Amino acid sequence: MLDYLAGATDTDGSPMLDNTVLVWGNELGVGNTHDYKNIPWLVAGGGGGSIHSGRYLQYPDVPHNNLLVSVCNAMGFAT
Asked: What is the pTM of this model?
């Protein structure tokens, strides 16, 4: 999917991935214990300039809902 979006041209002439936000997560840090801490999330794309990519970030003891709100804000939704 990321390769396709990087290779596709958007209407402004930029790669479509630059104007896209793709989020992947699984809601569980450890499947057999249903641990909700240390959950891996992948955020890809530039979000039209609102997402700064190429980083690895860790936020211990912060709810993942904060990430989802940030993605909504990047898409233009107000909180």
From this structure: 0.78
